[in-house]
Amino acid sequence: MLYLGWMLLWLVASGRLEGPDISGMKDAGSYTCRPRIRSPQDEACCVKMILEVKPKTNISCGSPVSYKQSLLLGSMDSIRCPGLSHQSDAQSPEVTWYQNGKLLPEERRSPIEVDEIYDYHQGTYVCDYTRSDNASSWTVRAVVQVKTIGKPLTLNCTARFGFERNFKPVIRWYIKDSEQEWEVPAPEEKSVKSTLKDEIIERVFFLKEVTQRDLRRTFTCFAQNSIGNTTHSVQLKEKKGVLFLYILLGTVTSLAGALAAGALLCRYWIELVLLYRTYQSTDETLGDKKEFDAFVSYAKLSSLESEATPSLSEEDLALNLFPEVLENKYGYTLCLLERDVVPGGAYAEDIVSMIKKSRRGVFILSPNYVNGPRIFELQAAVNLALDDQTLKLILIKFSPFQEPECLPHLVKKALRVLPTVTWRGLKSVPPNSRFWTQMRYHMPVKSSKGFTWDQLRIIPRIFSLEKTQENKSHWEELPA
Q: Which residue of 98, 196, 361, 419 has the fewest C-beta atoms within 10 A of its own C-beta?
């Protein structure tokens, strides 16, 4: 059994003869060899051979031919024609080479052997060769993209020379490898610093591309004056772990970006939720058969306590700021005991009735509240919220307080688990402050027709002292 492209060899007593070139499936069949008898001593013989021809495969080739090659500058390498990579010199046909469209007349074989790779070896190579059988022939063309790799490097030699009357310094660069040493051209030396006592001069040697061969060489700087000379040698080493450094930097940068994004998301989560509600969420107040958006509970101060309080009190917050901001600006409906409950009824029954008609319960906590009779309203709301899933409670920490021991266990637990919004004095007064943003976050979702970006402004405006004083005077004029 022979494969396409093999030579048929005939062995006879007088020696070896080459047979026909087996180049096609038509060459299969029976072959008979009858050697010519030239002398009486020759023995007559007849050899019959049945030849089966099979197509030649590339099973013996290790890997598919690459149509892109990278050549390391300064190294020894070869440029191969795809399709001829696995053939011996005897089998390889004549090849016509082109580089960037120009004929390479000296290159007639594959591969092209290059003793040392330079920049000009980079480009597009085209190789043409001829294939044929007994009946026909054809031209095969293959294209190879060759790229050179390597990085530039600057070597700086700086020498300090003492004072001389006839100052003639010499600075040179030499390259030494295992076989020879030679001086390399470099830009003229230049003076870096000059004083009466000494002078500093440098000379720079620039490597356009660092090659593999440069890693095996020694670069020597030679400095000389009238007194003597000195040398300093440099051996280049290949950097390791550069890819790992890039991966590490990329990972750290990605992690830092993720942490920063998480911090921003956490910081402005409420604003994002409010923005989403404005455009996407449905009105949760539709069809719930409730009259108020929030029931507001606070501690009512006596006339003496009101006069003794120089700043804004919880009563001012409930009766003035809440209606001004939540009702007038954002369209919520509040239930205020002094305003919306008809006097004369049973206090406990009225409170329970108003809370049942409300979607939220807002409780302004202060020492007067937790130690006074109004704590009953919080206790009643907690009991109602256990049965009514649509009723949600909001705590406002108006001023610091200490829990009394006599508080019911259910109220103590509510103080720990319910959402709490902290009042921060005059900083919380502006309608676009953080306090009101948090309040809107906990209030029922309602359709907002008059939404503006000013409602979500993150940096609150500072109210002028004059405006604050006007509001304070307005609150003082209101009846208790």
A: 196
